[in-house]
Amino acid sequence: MHRRSQTRLRPPIRFGHPDKCWTIWRIGGEVGEIASRLYEQPARDYTISTGRIKTFGGKDGIDVFRRDCYKRSNFIHRKDVVYKVVQPRYEETSIRHLSATTVSIRKHSSTHCRYIFPRPHFPSKMVNIPKTQTAATVPKLGGGVVFVHDYPVPQPGHNEVLAKVLYSGVCQSDLHTQAGIAASAQGTPITNVKLPHVGGHEGIGRIIALGPGVDEDIKVGTFVGIRFASRICRRCNFCLAGKEQHCIKSTNHLHHEDGSFQEYIALDAGYLTLLPDDIDPVTTGPVLCAGLTTYKAVKNCNVSAGNSVVVVGAGGGLGHLAVQYALAQGAIVYAVDGGGEKGEFLKSLGVTGYVDFTTTPNLIDKIHEITNGGADAVIVTAANPKAFAQAAEMLAVGGTLSCVGIPAERGYLETPISTIVIKGLHITGNLVGSLKECLEAVDLVRRGIVKPKVTVRPFEDLPKIYEELERGDVLGRIVLKIAKDE
Ligand SMILES: [Zn+2]
Ligand SMILES: [Zn+2]
């Protein structure tokens, strides 16, 4: 099928410096990622070539367009979209349709650069990267959230990708950090935070552009997670041990870099949380912090089928996921939280018993009674120090206390040392988890074994959501709708 050259062209879209830019003429449909990919290449050094080449990565056959682009114009056709690639100073003379998923760009030196556009990810609309965006900024810790609509969109640097943020969960750490009361490893407030602070570390985005030097395995259109950890060194003992969340040179999206409470984010392509195509972007966000943390907390307890696990704060964002990850391990789970609504919800998840702390005079006695002598593991997900104080006393001999929530204040465990020694108790702490563990936690959600309970709210509700989190009356996790997926 051929179109005539007199096809009416829409205005061209130009990328890059005028001397070395590709002009992409839009004939039908919208200009997609081809435009954004080509823009990185200096046009003078390349010709576009065509021809049929081998099947790539199990996908359909790939057509490559062979034509000297110094004399003729080039068109790439996909479905109802025709892309025409021309250099500004040469006249277009013909139009050709191709079902191309790959454009091969050859340097005059005959070095090949190959660009693969995988079918499932091919965006149907133009990848429009604006200069500014909406971001929920915190100019001063404790000063509240200010929505800014002209916040700069980051440019992806070397080995970075630019992602559009679609959804983001709201974590207790976001609340504490913006308020300037998040506790450090020493129990003192963390105040050394990049300002303006942009929180969010449970984000799901879609890659929309690649910076220079990004590995060709990384595709535009792929879902990507915006997690707590942003960059790691890959060389320290913790990185080498697969505990890179403790990397001595790490940076994170809470204290050092802007997080997912903005529409666009640049991410290190060397430490990307690449997610499968079939995840649900709405429910997967909370897995990246709350889910991962509780998945790891359950793992730390060495729970096996039939063990009893008590989750304290079970109805919250972390808690309801801890319940489900423990159930997925075959544990018998008892939930502690307050109120009838949370009780009903937790019973629907499959807990064996629900203990309402608002109506139970002695929690420790109650747990010993229903677990017949104490729990094999207690996971405390509440961020209130009172929830931790006597939690270890709920344990059976040899049991494990897994601390997950981080109270804002300098909270303490108040378990007698004699109890810990005589009963041979274990106490573990937990800071998120590794990327591998994150992907394991995501997979259980993707398969429907663990189901995050989420409520989607508009981006501008963030200040209200912080108030609700502070009051502690949030069931499951709140997820913000950030930017439109195009
Ligand atoms: Zn978090
Ligand atoms: Zn490291």
Automatic annotation (TrEMBL):
Annotated source species: Trichoderma simmonsii
Similarity comment: Belongs to the zinc-containing alcohol dehydrogenase family.
Entry GO MF terms: alcohol dehydrogenase (NAD+) activity; zinc ion binding
Lineage: Eukaryota, Fungi, Dikarya, Ascomycota, Pezizomycotina
PROSITE patterns for the chain: ADH_ZINC
Superkingdom as given in the UniProt entry: Eukaryota
Cellular component, GO annotation: cytoplasm
Name of the molecule in the record: Alcohol dehydrogenase, class V
Cofactor: Zn(2+)
